[in-house]
Amino acid sequence: MSDMTWSIVGGRPAPLGATFRGDGVNFAVFSQHATQVHVCLFSEDGRRETQCLPLPERDGDVWHGFVPGLPPGAFYGLRAEGPYAPADGHRFNRHKLLLDPYARRITAHPVWHDALMGYTVGAHDADLSFDTRDSAPFMPRCVVEDPAFSWGATRPPLTPMDETVIYEAHVKGLTQLHPQAAPKGTFLGVASDPMLEHLTRLGVTAVELLPVHAFLNDRFLVQKGLRNYWGYQTIGFFAPDPRYLHRGQLWEFQHMVARLHDAGIEIILDVVYNHTGEGSELGPTLSFRGLDNRAYYRLTDGDPRYYVNDTGTGNTLNLDHPMVLRMVMDSLRYWVEVMGVDGFRFDLCATLGRTEAGFDPGAAFFDAVRQDPVLTRVKLIAEPWDIGPGGYQVGAFPPPFHEWNDKYRDGVRRFWRGDEAMLPALADRLSGSALQFDHSGRPATSSVNFVTAHDGFTLADWVAYRDRHNEANGEGNRDGHSENFSDNLGVEGPTDDPRIRDRRARRRRNMMATLLLSQGTPMILAGDEIGNSQGGNNNAYAQDNETGWIDWPRADTGFAEFTRRLIAIRRRHPILRQKRFLHSRERPEDGLSDLFWWRPDGEPMDDARWAEAEHVICVELRMASGTPGYAAREDAIFLVFNRGPEVDVTLPPVSERRRWRIMIDTSEPDGGPTGRIAGAVVEAPAESVMAMVLEAVPDE
Q: Helix/strand/coil (H, E, C) string of 629-648?
């Protein structure tokens, strides 16, 4: 193939990208402002550029051509000609090899060199200068792919949101230190038997992977001997990152999806459509900037040399442009229809809803998603903030979006840390954060509850560190959250003090129990179930090492079993995972309240009690009125959250044929004896969570 001379003829404007048609490859590339777009072909080993063929036709703003006989596996890139006028928003530079925004596979990460810049580094006029060096020696190649995959009898689990338990994980971090998972650090490792056994035993229903789209290793990290670990610097919205491909083949991702689906587990992708890895005006020219800077990015009013930076990364994608919005929609559909994923978590999703007037839940992106017949059948989760003006939008997203709820995280953390006057906040979080989410017909599952995530302390570190310890990131320990609402219980970091270790273990149990007993959709950070620590680093974005990887060899198997029990209880008891919000209203069917807050002495909560800085709260839960088939289900669940000293709790009165049975008591390392029957009064141990179910007394 490397010795052949290829011809190019008129092609088709759709679909965009490189499409193998059986007898050759069709190339279609969007650029509104280019004067010519070229497709460059490479030798069979990808090293030498052998031809640079101008795309011969243009339909509107899509340049296209067909190369007869070109097979899958061919290496290619793009070059675009046009004005280099940064002051007008144009940054075309034909000397720079560009990635196809629609490339299905990319061979590697760029190798940092000044030739990757469209301007001359060090020039007195900075990005207004023009660099003529060829960037191809330092650029990865795009690969023509036929992504067809035989799914056989595999079908998506289609798990309802009220039955969903999300497990947020990193492909490499999940598998790298696992003693049996192989090949390590890859999609195939995630699909290995040992990993599937752990996930299915734990009982999670969806794995949410940190970004797997091809991304950039930031230059400032490489210069410090670090790497972009998390992956929030996308440079290819259709291509899996090559570091996770063991054999460099697309089917590896699809195989992972199929294996997880066969195990009843869904795949959710954390996706970054708010910005790209090309950064500010001083960043590299890798793809979008060189193809049509003015179309792909939001530029500042009055001076289009500079970029709108609502994301804090140097640039913001311009979803107001129909072709950029089309790229995002095409990417989402591709990952669902071709790669088999079950949903998306949108990084800095507030940015995707920005218009000239600010955030708008009716923005073009949301409208496009909400009418799409493919995307409306998968899970859609928003990270509901960015750093721009008015960027905090928790609760403001339209259905069918669900949202990460940091109010839940902070409220639960502050309660268990011992902050004063936190009972009302805890009550709101336990009942689904209705103030934020109960509007527009949204279900109670709209709140994605979490106490930890990749961004911040792990659960083990939250109980062991008061301050962040991010020195290894090389930023003077200034990066990462400064307020973690954490408590080290007297000693910063590891300790041999058995009393402190026991209290830390109990608080971890309390946090996990609170999460899995709350209304909403729970999300667990991978590794929390086995006590994983990052040594106090709360921003491990550059720690592609033992700090960022899960420490399986030192797994706390007892806590894993405790977490498994909690997930199983949640699965067995629909009262804990309702779609309807609970508002302490009487059910017309039986006159009983669906939600009732009790004092530990058996008296109802009143306004004065809510205003006091108390340490214990009790709640009685029933199925909400109107829930289909609720009458055939269990009667009630009673929960006690006690962050203070031991206290006697009077249980709600029941009939002779009903009794309360204790399911969980976090004062016990294993969660307590299963099936213990409670009397009229129970002793709630200090710093504990108790969960009881009301059940019928069996006939003797």
A: CHHHCCCEEEEEEECCCCEE
**569 and 603 share a domain?**
no
Amino acid type, 265: I
Is 90 exceeded by the pLDDT of residue 610?
A: no
Specify if 492 maps to a domain: yes
Q: Are residues 143 and 193 in the same domain?
A: no
> Is 325 among the domain residues?
no
Under a CB-based contact definition with an 8 Å cutoff, are residues 491 and 511 in contact?
A: no
Q: 520 near 405, Cβ under 8 Å?
A: yes
**At 235, is the secondary structure helix, strand, or coil?**
strand
Between vectors from CA 425 to CA 423 and to CA 428, what angle results, nearest 5°? 110
With both helix axes pointing from N to C terminus, report the angle between 498-516 and 406-417 in degrees, rounded to the nearest 10.
Answer: 140
Could you tell me if 3 and 40 lie in one domain?
Answer: yes
Q: Can you give the pTM of this predicted structure?
A: 0.97
Same domain, 33 and 122: yes
AA letter at 41: L
The enclosing H or E element of 90 equals strand 90-91
Is residue 514 classed as helix, strand or coil in its secondary structure?
helix
What confidence score (pLDDT) does residue 148 get? 94
Q: Over the stretch 113-160, which tens digit does the pLDDT of each residue have? A: 999 999 999 999 999 999 999 999 999 999 999 999 999 999 999 999
Q: Domain ends where: 556, 575, 594?
A: 575
Cα dist from 502 to 460, 498, 499, whole Å: 12, 6, 5
What band does 623 get if pLDDT is binned at 50, 70 and 90? Answer: very high
Query: Distance between CA 432 and CA 284 in Å, rounded?
Result: 44
Contact present, 620 and 596 (Cβ < 8 Å): yes
Quick one: 269 and 297 in the same domain? no
Q: pLDDT value at position 234?
A: 98
Give the Cα separation of 525 and 544 in Å (integer): 17
Q: Chain centroid to CA 666: how far?
A: 29
**What does each C-alpha distance from 615 to 438, 523, 640 come to in angstroms?**
27, 25, 11
The Cα–Cα gap between 412 and 426 comes to: 6
Average pLDDT over residues 18-35: 97
Residues 393 and 525 placed together within one structural domain of the fold: yes
Counted domains in the chain: 3
In a domain, 69, yes or no: yes
Residue 536 and residue 463 in contact, taking contact as beta carbons nearer than 8 Å: no
Asked if residue 506 and residue 652 are part of one domain, the reply reads: no
Q: Is the pLDDT of residue 459 over 70?
A: yes
Residues catalogued as catalytic: 347, 383
Domain that holds residue 540: 164-275+344-575
Residue 27 lies in a domain: yes
Q: Inter-axis angle of helices 322-337 and 288-296, to 10 degrees? A: 120
pLDDT at res. 634: 66
Write the DSSP symbol of residue 13.
S
